[in-house]
Amino acid sequence: MPTPFNQSVIDEFRANGGKVGGPFEDGDLLLLTTTGARSGKQHTTPLGYVRDDGLLLVTGSNLGGPRHPDWYHNVLAHPTVTVELGTDTFEAVAVPAEGERRDRLFERIVAADPGYGEYRTRTDRILPVVVLERPAHEADIPEDAADFADKMLQVHLWLRGQLRHVREETDAYFAALGEHRERRGSDAPPAPGLGLQIRQHCLAFCDALEFHHSGEDAHLFPTMAGHHPELRDTFDRLTEEHRSVARIQGELAALLADVGGADPERFRAELTRMSQELTAHLDYEEEALLPILAELPWPPGPPA
């Protein structure tokens, strides 16, 4: 639960289209809703932010305290967050910046709000800088859905785009690794593990995939099977494919449980397996179900 002070800021923010008074008056403020790392519950936190060349930056300052704030631990466990910015609400992926990039962005934050420089002097820890990224491929996804088929395609486009993004980042990592080995003649990677950027995007993809498949197994498939018993074998196959994909998803999640410590070669192999199996699954699901789902309006109406 938010503190009473934070809750009052949240209430004022939402009641006034993102405008608040008191110590935050005239400041740049957003609301960040995260999923608890341990509880799995939703938590909303008011945070100051800075824009830099289109990037939306927040800082885990915790007022210069000795520990990272709870919201930062939450985004490491569940990178998909909800951002309220003025009257706009959207989902984003929270990606902590690393190394030189983190240092450069933090100096940009201090230049915009010198208070963060003061927080830095109060603690020995490195204050995290987190970039709130809206998925780049969202522009390719239609905003409106006329029927269930359109809605399924929206979700599938998001999953395909996020998976493609993770693979592109992984390929870039291995290209950099190859160049490093050519120059140094060393087997050491240019940085430990895979990096937080790949990790966060992959975990966000896995969370969305699990939510989508769980919803289909619990609701969509049983409902459709009741009206289309002739498709029983189809639903059995789709459910089994969900299990196969979930096993790969579990392998990826286990690899990424150690922040920055995933084995890059093994991760790449599991990601390739995920791409092959999930693409084949989505292709089959669309071929089998879209003609039927196109007959059902979205959003669904009240029961007849």
Pick out its properties.
single chain, 304 residues, alpha+beta, Pnp Oxidase, Chain A, 2 domains, seven-stranded antiparallel sheet, 14% strand, globular
Please, could you describe this protein's structure?
The protein is of the alpha+beta class and 304 residues long. The protein has two domains: 4-134, Pnp Oxidase, Chain A, CATH 2.30.110; 138-293. 54% of the residues lie in helices and 14% in strands. The chain is built from eight helices and seven strands; from the N terminus they run H-E-E-E-E-H-E-E-H-H-E-H-H-H-H. Strands 2-1-5-6-7-4-3 form a seven-stranded antiparallel sheet, with helices on both faces. Strand 3 and strand 4 form a beta hairpin. Helix 5 runs antiparallel to helix 6 (196-227) and helix 6 runs antiparallel to helix 7 (232-256). The two termini are 40 Å apart. This is Nitroreductase family deazaflavin-dependent oxidoreductase. One of its GO terms (cellular component) is plasma membrane. Residues 151-293 form the Hemerythrin-like domain.
